[in-house]
């Protein structure tokens, strides 16, 4: 890792250091997550943002140990409360960490819940697999948990297809919180929901995060979703972290040219008359054979000769602000 984060990661619940995960394909290795580093502080929320294909889900899959078969972990640390998850065997991870201490809220989709089981049975299984409690106690907890996400108790008797998309996502959130995890990873939790439901789910998650005090990593391709939710934002481009910083810094003074363009591409409803929406010219690169040097250089308005030759390191340019850019990443 270029920087240790030690000045800004205060008791981090999760610290990812130079994580490298590639996918084996017929055409060669897809360099999906290449030396990715970021952290989530205790009680904090770190957003992980970037265009589709930038490697966000690859990072999450490796942290949660659900990488597809052709995925290869090639190095890096994933410290969860100072313990390297990459050194833990899968059995121990499933028993001790997954769902119990770290849980995942996947995209809102029909596959996230098992269609043949009633909601209550899926929730019961999660509790009884990990904890030695009576069925009555577990049911009590299920009802409370459904109530906390705004789903009436009687829905526990239903099958997933009998709920609306928004209700299903609320149930998934309730399931993720059943065992009181320290860290929740929300991977595009509002994709596939309508705009109003999206806003409700985001504010529900933020409310629960604050009232229950868990830490969260929120993954999204929509940077605007993170504004009121996260305290840190990590920006990924083509398998690399290009910028990481406090949410205020990322929104008000982004340094990486890619982040600057991303911010300009967020529609602002209040200023829609005066603001011109910017789209980023060009396409993200092929990750089997990414450009040399900075992976963003072919699309970068500020690119210099060095950007084609040398890969920029992620450097701390000021407190709580890291940038990987030869042009703008200078220490202040
Ligand atoms: N199983 C796989 N085999 C081969 N390549 C893969 C596999 N899964 C993902 N990739 C590739 O890895 C890169 C990163 O994908 P990833 O899904 O992590 O990105 P993402 O930022 O999460 O995108 P999205 O927001 O669309 O989910 C992409 O180029 C993608 O095509």
From TrEMBL:
InterPro entries: AAA+_ATPase (IPR003593), ABC_transporter-like_ATP-bd (IPR003439), ABC_transporter-like_CS (IPR017871), Oligopep_ABC_C (IPR013563), P-loop_NTPase (IPR027417)
One GO biological process term: peptide transport
SUPFAM superfamilies: P-loop containing nucleoside triphosphate hydrolases
GO molecular function: ATP binding; ATP hydrolysis activity
Keyword Transport among record annotations: yes
UniProt keyword list: ATP-binding, Nucleotide-binding, Transport
ABC transporter domain mapped to chain residues: 16-263
Name of the protein described by the UniProt record: Dipeptide/oligopeptide/nickel ABC transporter ATP-binding protein
Organism this protein belongs to: Sulfodiicoccus acidiphilus
């Amino acid at each position: 890792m270029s920087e240790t984060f030690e000045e800004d990661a205060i008791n981090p619940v999760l610290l990812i250091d130079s994580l490298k995960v590639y996918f084996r394909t017929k055409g060669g290795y897809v360099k999906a997550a290449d030396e990715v580093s970021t952290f989530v502080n205790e009680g904090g929320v770190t957003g992980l943002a970037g265009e589709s294909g930038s490697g966000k889900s690859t990072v999450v899959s490796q942290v949660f140990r659900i990488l597809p078969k052709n995925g290869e972990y090639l190095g890096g640390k994933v410290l969860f409360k100072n313990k390297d998850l990459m050194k833990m065997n899968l059995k121990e991870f499933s028993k001790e960490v997954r769902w119990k201490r770290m849980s995942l809220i996947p995209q809102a989709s029909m596959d996230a819940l098992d269609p043949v089981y009633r909601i209550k049975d899926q929730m019961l299984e999660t509790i009884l697999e990990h904890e030695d409690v009576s069925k009555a106690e577990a049911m009590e907890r299920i009802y409370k948990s459904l109530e906390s996400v705004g789903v009436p108790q009687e829905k526990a008797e239903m099958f997933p297809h009998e709920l609306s998309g928004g209700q299903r996502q609320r149930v998934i959130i309730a399931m993720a919180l059943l065992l009181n995890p320290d860290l929740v990873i929300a991977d595009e939790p509002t994709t596939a929901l309508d705009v109003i439901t999206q806003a409700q789910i985001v504010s529900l998650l933020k409310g629960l995060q604050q009232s229950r005090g868990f830490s969260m990593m929120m993954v999204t391709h929509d940077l605007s979703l993170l504004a009121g939710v996260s305290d840190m934002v990590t920006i990924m481009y083509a398998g690399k972290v290009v910028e990481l910083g406090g949410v205020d810094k990322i929104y008000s003074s982004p340094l990486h040219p890619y982040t600057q363009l991303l911010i300009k591409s967020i529609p602002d409803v209040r200023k829609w008359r005066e603001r011109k929406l910017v789209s980023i010219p060009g396409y993200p690169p092929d990750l089997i054979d990414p450009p040399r040097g900075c992976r963003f250089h072919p699309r970068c308005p500020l690119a210099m000769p060095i950007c084609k030759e040398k890969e920029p390191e992620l450097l701390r340019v000021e407190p709580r602000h890291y940038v990987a850019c030869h042009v703008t990443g200078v220490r202040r």
